[in-house]
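Before we proceed, please read the two lines closing this message. Let me know whether the structure tokens fit the sequence:

…
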Amino acid sequence: MTVTSSAAVDVSLVDPRTGRVRGTLTAAPAADIAQQVQTARAAQRDWGARTPADRAARLFALAALIESDVERFVAAEIAGTGKPVAEATGEVRTAADVIRFYAGAARAGIAPASGRLLPERESWVRWEPMGVVACIVPWNYPLLMAAWRIAPALAAGNAVLLKPAETTPDSAVLLQESAEAILGPGVLTVVPGDRATGRALVASEVDMIAFTGSAAAGLEVATSAGLRRTSLELGGNCPVLVLPGAPDYSYDAIVDACVYNAGQSCAAPARVIALSEHYDAVVQGLATAMSKRRAGVDFGPLNNADQAARYDRIVDESKGEAVVVAPTQIAAHETDGFWRPGRIIATHAQDDTAVAQEVFGPCLTVQPADDLDHAVRLANSTPHALAASVWGRDAGRLLRVAGAINAGEVWVNCHLEQTAELPHGGRGGSGHGTDLSTIALAEYQRPKTVTVRLD
């Protein structure tokens, strides 16, 4: 695949399954981005003036077009990520579902108090679009993360400039092709490129930035954004508390959630915490489950060389014991790809690199805790506070622990199960703002109170 613009900076696109160059991307320069912002601003005036019903009909049509062209979108996803076909297909269909959800949700609106709230006055609130929104999304779920951001932004009447990750522009470019005729020129514009492109987009005259990525990059975005609104989803390093008497399916379910997308999910389970009294049994249960998951069959590769090197560094620096390193089943022509096996690391060190940093790969650390209070403290001991899960049988105990964990999303006896109806968002080092649910519509709108004197 080759993506072109008037820029002179070329970026190689690499197949993560083989490590070989598969095409080039030419990054958009700042001058191009400035013009794209102005084009988007002109398009937004018409798009934002349309009725919610009109915008909904067009977004429904876009979702239907994605589903009717699912094979091309799946191929585009696989090209940049190396995902298994089943994973990529499910994510493309889920992306279409997210767009369809917001197509309908925008018609319901957001309704704060209105009416005669002051003497002899009638008041109401208008919810207005932000204007032009820059959406910068990562490489782990290229189309799905784009849908999480662009769907509520478009439904709310904004124009969007979408910056995909430099390694995975394929499905975003295809999305723009699908959207242009349905939504109108300039309503959704894809801005492929590298980090310099993203920085130029953030520095441009957009009205809001929605960013999903690392904490370091998120801080840079927030600094550059100044007083403009930002929505930041910055990673998870998610704790998993396995209590005595956890259901038999717990270990397989935790491992399945860990290796999905090769562990490259902000909300993936990462840090397992078990009470000392059954720590060995938890380690063994997870090791047995992980030993059955094969890279190359059950999950795909890491996305790029930098991510693979980072993963290797964290694993090498770990002070824990690698209880199991799962087998791999990789084709002969894929041996130079970014494949990493599933791994369980038993560790007692809270400052272990694999505990303190988000591994973002098919790896679980397992830590012992003296008691339940200690387990909760360990769960809350990192700057991240995105998601967590608790596993056990005592309903009251499970709900108390779920309430004590500092996270935007907590699962009980399951993990990494999401739907468009439920909000997803972080706290602390995991950023701020909300993806999914009708709550996310407010991210991309601003309220205006109108009060009229009645006499």
Notes: The chain has a mean pLDDT of 95. The two ends are 66 Å apart (CA to CA). DSSP finds 14 helices and 21 strands in the chain.
